[in-house]
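User: Can you predict the 3D structure for this chain?
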Amino acid sequence: MSQHALVDGFFTFWAILILWMLWENLHSARNWAWLAGYTVSLALLVLTKENSFFVWIAIVLVLVANRWLHYGTVSPELLVATILGPLLGVVTLVFLAGGIDVLLGTYRLLISKNYQLPYAIKTGDGPWYRYIVDLLLVSPIIMLLAIGSIFRIDRTKRPELFLLMFVAGSYLVMCNLKYGMNLRYANMWDVPLRLLAVSTLASLVAPFRQRSVLLFGLAIAVICSFELRQYLILFVQFPLYELVSEGLLRALHILK
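Assistant: Here is the predicted structure, written as structure tokens:
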């Protein structure tokens, strides 16, 4: 999506950076360099797009779930940074907009237009599993492997739990937006889903022992070739600008 004149690729950069910073802060308590980077990244995410709320909700869920899943240490400083970063972004937005009344008025106008635009009404709605269907159309192998990771995760697999909670937390909010569903909003799940898929693939080839590395490499090569083929179909042969369900179905010749 970064090839298009849309902010979603840039937004994904900040979301993934925040996810990385959060992981480092969970394992390096009171490290001021990581805390500063995390706080600034959250502020810049808020300045990028209103979808930053989805990321923040997912982060809060990750921090709350840590009490039971124990994939890191939540320090008081980390909690303060989680609140302070978005607050700095909002204050900056108010300043740049010329006042809180102007900012709120602009936001209300944006929301109201989403319920009136014919394109948003036609393409921006669907059932709660719409994102799963769209991801299966774009990257079926990756999605199936990532879903498979759910059935093999236990408390010893902390990175996988961390990523899964982030995806689940943001998905919970995003799948309930009327006229506000689009796969480009889900770009931030791309790296987490691929890491979950790699974890599942590694577990599948592990029983082969001495040949596991060779099989793992071959499987990665096959999946990468398939992903490249999907890219050529969706963005070259059938140049999609918006990743909505109808366009994906037509590009893959499921709809004629």
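Residues 1-114 form one domain. The CA atoms of residues 9 and 97 lie 24 Å apart.
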